[in-house]
Every structure is written in C-alpha cells, then in structure tokens.
Write a structure and sequence with these properties.
single chain, 962 residues, alpha/beta, 32-stranded mixed beta sheet, 13 helices, binds 2-acetamido-2-deoxy-beta-D-glucopyranose
Amino acid sequence: MITSIFTYFLLLFLIHLFSNEFISLQASEFVSYSTNFTTCWEIERNALLKFKEGLQDPSGRLSSWVGNYCCTWSGVGCNRQTGHVTKLDLGMPPSSFNINDPKAFDFASLQGTISPSLLDLKYLHYLDLSWNNFEQTPIPNFIGSFTKLEYLNLSYASFSGLVPPHLGNLSNLRYLDLSSQSLDQDTLVSDLNWIRGLSSLELLRIKVANLSFASASWLQAINKLPSLMELDLSSCRLHDIPASLPILNFSSIQVIDLSQNDFNSPLPGWLFNISSLVELDLSSNGFSGQIPPSIQNLNNMRDLVLYENDLSGLLPISIGNLSSLETLFLSSNQLNGTIPETTGQLKKLIMLDLSSNNWGGVVSRIHFLHLNNMKVFLLSSVKEKPLVFDVGYDWIPPFSLNLIFIKNCQMNPKFPIWLQTQKELKIVELIEVGISGYVPDWFWKLSPQIEKLSLHNNKLCGELPRSLQFSHSSIDLSVNLFEGPIPLFSGVNMLGLKNNSLSGPIPANFVDAMLHLEFMDLSENYFNGSIPSSINKLEKLEVLLLQNNELSGKIPSMNRLKNLWTLDLSNNNLFGSIPSSLCSQSPLIHLKLNGNNFYGKLSSLQNCTNLGTLGLANNQFHRGIPRWIGETLSCLSILQLRGNMFRGKIPKSLCSLPLLHVLDLGQNNFSGSIPPCLGNLSSLYHSKNSTFVSAAVAAHALVANAVAAATTVATVVSTTVASGKKGAIVAATILEGFMPFLSGMRDMEFNVKGQTLEFVNIIDLVNLIDLSSNNLEGEIPEEITKLSALGTLNLSRNQLTGNIPKKIGDLKLVETLDLSVNHLSGPIPASISSMTLLSHLNLSYNDLSGQIPLANQFQTFNDPSIYEGNPKLCGAPLPINCNAPPDEPFGKDRDESCSERLWFYIGTASGFVVGFWVVCGTLVIKRSWRHAYFRFVEEMKDMIYIFIVVKAARLQKKLRPW
Ligand SMILES: *[C@@H]1O[C@H](CO)[C@@H](O)[C@H](O)[C@H]1NC(C)=O
Ligand SMILES: *[C@@H]1O[C@H](CO)[C@@H](O)[C@H](O)[C@H]1NC(C)=O
Ligand SMILES: *[C@@H]1O[C@H](CO)[C@@H](O)[C@H](O)[C@H]1NC(C)=O
Ligand SMILES: *[C@@H]1O[C@H](CO)[C@@H](O)[C@H](O)[C@H]1NC(C)=O
C-alpha cells in the first residue's frame, strides 16, 4: 500500500511536469475543432447524456450538460459547419487541483465507466479523458472505432489491463498518450504490435506501462511511423532494443525518451545517427559500452540525458561539436579518463552533470571557456585517485551558477575565492574537496539566498558566524574542524553539524532562533551543559541526534514534539530516568540512550508502541526487564540492554516479539535459565515460505522503486520551482523520508567476531542473540537451534551446564559462536561442522571432552586458544592426541551454503523491512513521508538530491528561459 501511495504521488508529480509541455503545444493545433455551435444533433446529444449517466461527477464538472444545445456543454466541441460533435475534452488539468491531496483529486475527477453510446459521436476527432479515475478498468475496445480520431489522451485516468489492439485502427491518429500512474500489476499491458497501424502518429507517449511482452520487434513497429516526432516509452519494462536499425524510417523524430527501462545492452549506435534529435533521454537503463564518437552528428541535440547507466571509456572529444546542447547529464556511469576540454565549446550549455563517474586527470578553466550560460554544474569522481579541479585561485568564471556540486575532487585547499563572483547561488555543495582554513565572511553573506549548503568532509575551521538568516534551508557542515559555540542559524529546516569541535552549551535562544528545525544533528562535538528545556518548542522536529557529546543533566520534557521519530542521546553524561512524556505525543521509532547514566524504571516507555529500536546499553538500569516490553512494544526489532545491572530472569514475553532480530542483553546480572521460548523468535527463523519470499521481493521492489523514483521526484520541484517557491529541498526529502530504514541504526555497536564492530547501515541485516556475561545457569535449550537465521550467538561467561545441543549444526548461518567460560561438558557435537559459515568460534574454559571436529572449516581453526581450558579435549590444534578415529565429515557442500547465505540476506533484511513498515511504520510514514529530512547513505542522499535539483532545473529551463 505504501508503495502504491508513494508511486502514485510521484507519478502524479511526474505527470504534471512532463505531460503538459507537449499537450499544450499539440492541443493548440486541434483548437479549430472546438467552436461555439449552438444547436446539436439529437443522436449525439443522447450519446453524451448516456455517457454522463455512466459517470460519477462529485464536483459537478458536467453540470452544464443539460438542455438541447450540446455544443455549448463544457468540454464538448462541434464542427462549425456541420454541427457534429468533434471534440470531447474532459481531461482535468493537474493545475486545477491540489496535487498533494488525493481527496482533492478524487473530488475533481470523473469516475465510473465509459458508455459505448459514445460510438454515436461518429465525427469525433479529439478525445481527452486524462486525469480521471476509471477505477482500473480496461480501455474500452470501441475506442478503436473512432476512425476519425486525431487526438487521444487517456493518460493518468486509472485504466489498466491489456491495451486493446483495436487502437491500431486509428489511422488518422496524430497524438496518443496512454501514460499511467501506477507501477503495480494493475498497469497497462501491451505488446505494441498494434502500433504499426497508426500511420499518422506524431506523438506516442506511454509512460509507465508493462510492455515487457513486446518482442524485440517493438521498434520495427515504431519505425513504421514516418511522421513520428516524439516517442516516450519511459518506465515501460522494455528489455530489447536492436543494436542496429538498417533503415531509419522515423526520420523526423525529435524527442526520444526511453528512460527507466531494462535494456542492459550496449548503447545502440543507430540512435546517434538521427540528426533530427533534439532530446534524447536514455537514463536508468543499464546501457553499457562507450559513447560513440559519432555523437557529433547530433547537431540539433538540446538535451542529452544518459545518467544511471554503465557507460564506460572516454567521453568523446566530439562532444564539443554539439553546438545546440543545453543539457548534458552523464552522472552515475563508469566514464573514465580525462574530461575533454571541448566541453568548454558548448556555448549554449545550461546544465552540466558530470558527477559519479570514474574521471581522472585535471579539470581546468578551459573546460568552462565559453560556458557563459551555465547555471547548474555537478562534478564528482568515485575513483580513489582524486580528480583534480584546478581553475586557479583568481579565476573569474564566465558563468553565474545557481547550483554547484563538487564532490570527492581535489581542489585548492583555500576556500575558492572565485565563488565570490557567483551572485546567484542557491545550492552550494563542496563535499570532500580538501578545502581547509576559514570560510570567508563574503561567503556567509549569501545565506539569505541559499537553499542548500553542504560543506561536509572538509577541513574547514574557525568559528561559525554567531547568527545568520537563512530561509527554509538545509545546512550541512558536518565532518569539519569548526569550533566555538553553536551558531544561531535562523530559518533552517535541516541542520547538520556532526563531527566538528563545537563546544559550550546549547543555549535556550538557539532553539528560539530555529523553530523550523525538522532535522538536527549535533552529534560528535563537545557540547556540554544540559539539553535546554526549550527544545520542546521545536514542534516540527522529526530527528534529533545529540550523541557523542558531553551533555549532562536530565532529559527535558519533549511532550510537544509530535513528529519526533528518531532520538539519539547516546554517549553523553545524561542521567535520571526516562521521562514519561517521551512518547506521549511522538511516534518514536528509534530511541537510543546508550552510554549515559540513566536509571530507574522503564515504565515510561510503555506508551512508545511504535518503537522499533531501543538502545539502553551501558547505563545504570538495575531492575528487571518488565514483562510488558514483550507485550506492548510489538514493533521492537532491536533491543540493546547490554552493560547495565539488569537483574532477574529474562522474561518469556520477549519471545513473542515478532520482529525482534537483535537481542543484546550481555553484561548484566540476569539469572535463571535461558528461556527455551527464544526458539520462537520468528524473525530469527528462516523458513522457505513463498509468502515470505514474495513479501521480501516486494520489499526490494519498494526500495528499488523509491530509488528509481528519486529521479522522478524532481517533478515535484518543478511545480514548486516553477511557481516561485523553494521546493527543491522539500522534494529531496520526500524520498529521504520514505527510506528511513536504510539509515537504520547507524553507529550501532555489537560484539561480533570477538571485536566490537560498527555496523553502518546494515543493522537490519544483523541477527544476533548476546546473553554473555550474566549469571545464567542451566542448559542451553535445544530450542535455540531452531533459529536458523541467527548470525551471532554469544552465551559466554555464564554458569551454563550440560551439553552443547546436539543440533547446534542447525544454526547454519551462524558466523560467530561464543560459548566460552561456562561449565559445558560432554563432546563437541559432530553437527557443529555443518555450520559452514562459522568464522569465529570460542569454546574455551568449559569442561568439554573428546575429539575436536576436523571437517570443513574446522581445519582452519588452528588457534588452540579457542579450545583451551578444556582439559578433556583432544586433537588438533591442541597438542593432545586422541586415540579415537576422526569424526565422519559432516556437512554440506559449500556452494549450497553460499547460496543459502545469500538467501538469508535477501530474506531477513527484506522480511524485516516489510514487517516493520507494513506493521508498524504505516502510521508514521504518512506523516513523515513528505517532510522527514533524513539522511541515509550519504552517497545516496547526494545522488538523489542532485537528480532532483537537476531535473527540476531542467524543467525550469523548459518552462522559461533563464
Ligand atoms: C457562444 O455562444 C453563446 C450563446 O450564443 C454566446 O453568449 C457566447 O458569446 C459565444 N461565445 C463565443 C466565443 O463566440
Ligand atoms: C577506462 O575504461 C576502459 C573500459 O572500461 C578501460 O579499458 C580503460 O583502461 C580505462 N582507462 C583508464 C584511463 O582508466
Ligand atoms: C500512556 O498513555 C495513557 C493514555 O494515553 C496515559 O493515561 C498514561 O499516563 C500514559 N503513560 C505514560 C507512562 O506516559
Ligand atoms: C507462510 O507464511 C505465511 C505468513 O506467515 C502463512 O500464512 C503461510 O501459511 C505460510 N506458508 C507455508 C507454506 O508455510
């Protein structure tokens, strides 16, 4: 459901953007059919009235459809001479309703079924039913009988199913738009074979459909259309494109958009021989191979969009011959070598995106020589050896940019003084470019016009200005050497100051200056003093990250933070109990209070029913775990209580948490036995259940769609940018807000493989039970061997007795098994050698006896210390020989377990994602998906942001010249 809501809106935006330009152009050509004829043919009037009967029309758009004079009815057009109805224009322009509001859409749209009575409109030339809601019904076959039809627009009208091949009879059709808003199965499906009948077609647009059934000859069918000017089949699951096309029939084609299909083939060379092309979008297709030097034939080319493919090799020098080029998007490919200096010849260039390739060499002033019109510039290299951006210190560039993004390049270490010439900057991102020293005052003076500023991962130092005025901006100065007190940046929505040397208290007036904050990351600084109680005024705050500072005092009341869903206060000197107000309003999902001095009851968490992560490690809690945790916090997936003085038994109620996959109770005073019901922790199971698998696949699709949608989110911006609002950041956060699980619980620490590892962004993949260093006694319950998805089992340093369960080998995915320092006795079960992923084993200081297994990876465990302190053990690597014959090899073929492991990763991660977001996240996501500023993988964030901005800018450019 989330998927469809999400994609629905994205596509709504997309639509809004892309569909209009051409429609308005083209529709004007059809205006002659629309006249003000005042009589009406009765048969046609009756046909229209029947048609109206089949529709629901909540907003009364057809209220003028009464009386005799049907040619005056709204949306109806007649021929002036004959009086016949020639035009039915019932499309709803997206500008006529609030695109963000599905209810507004439902109200404004026509719904229901299309009556075949329409067939009586024998003279219909123009039919537009776009932007209505025909409720997933198929496109009626009879539309193929309107043989006079020249214009047919059925886009975004919730049609689904097979496109009737009857449409192929419309030999007069010039304009056809069947774009759709759904990526679900309900979308339109076609093999495109009927297309060849449309011999007059000038525009063919089917955005978002399932054309995967089209055979390799789909292009042959289209090549039969001599008048075709625009072809748009983006997001259509097409997978075959011919490498060569002997005869190019559609020689008047100007626009080709085949973005977001599944071609995964070499770039077809013939595309680069179509000299009429003005716009070519092949983005997000997995095209490989080189950009052909023939590219120079494209001298009408205005927009060349090739991002997100696998293009490799050099960018041809002949790129400089594309004298009409305004947009060049090459990001996220594998292009390498030096960027040709001929880019400097592209006098009309407005947007140049060279980010995320494998560039080497130097970028110099010559690359920009004649780029007087450039407004948007992006450059980054993903190579280890940095790309050098050397334009000199005193450069006066020919352009005046709105957006500059340079990442992972080597720039002059001084702050680039040439930016002082750039008076129109709105978005400045200079990330990991090796600049150091002070940020000059003139730069900060840009603040009122800055929408996004990112200088993270540099060596900038000095104090930040005490106060600056921004306006709905996103400011990221993380990972630098800034020092001094916290700055008061007003008008900031998103503030990232992570990992600097800022110090001093967080003053109460800081909050007053920043009432619009939605995302705040002050982590990894030296802030001290208490968290000001005024923080409760930040009613829009969704994410608050204060970990790794020197904050002291108690957690203030946060009962007004209605939107807070991530709170991390780890590793400070905070104390006291967890305030009961914490979840009284907020939908808290991630709560991390690790590494402080908190104590007291946990009862204040009782209302945190959305909680997915609870980190209370390394505090002073010393009571028992209350039973209700397992009963009330049903979304809990990560529970980390390590390093406290929790006592009593491990409550059985924890076993019923359906999503729990990390249970870390180490270093406490738990006593009693290990509850056998831990074997019921269902998210640590891994049964090959097809329901589960399809859910997992769905989850992957969800993520994939979200990423794919990143580019289309851009369209939101277009709406806002075009209407003069500052929309880019909002748009970026739609996606980011949608994917918070990716950001997961970064920085979570667990003891795995004998050392403390930091899991960055993969916490959702970790399946762990750690009960080490407690006073647990009794036997290891056999039931625990049912947890076939478990990756780490640490029961060390307890008082456990009895044998190691015989079936321990059923834990096939365990990589870390630590049972050391207990009183376990008996043999090491032979089945243990079937744990073929096991890489860290510790059985030392028990009372085990008999032969150490030798099969499989046990041959590689040649460190005797993992067995030491078991005087009755024998065999390699211990220096004690056994007389008994070695065990039978036990265990499976390694390939199989590898594939199982893959299975595990796919299964468990997605299972969690599905589980969490379907069961628990729904409520929150509705509120947050549009607003949440959340960073996930840094790379991803930048990429998405940039796509958005760039696309937006491209649109803006389309809409009006700069
Ligand atoms: C259309 O016809 C109506 C009724 O005769 C008249 O009031 C109106 O001005 C006409 N509109 C145009 C554009 O001719
Ligand atoms: C660029 O990539 C091509 C193809 O991937 C490779 O053959 C070539 O060696 C690379 N050149 C450089 C300079 O890395
Ligand atoms: C939990 O919520 C209930 C009802 O909203 C309220 O009466 C109760 O005081 C809350 N408990 C805590 C610990 O906040
Ligand atoms: C798979 O899991 C689902 C949901 O947990 C359950 O309804 C279904 O019966 C299971 N199917 C099999 C074959 O175990």
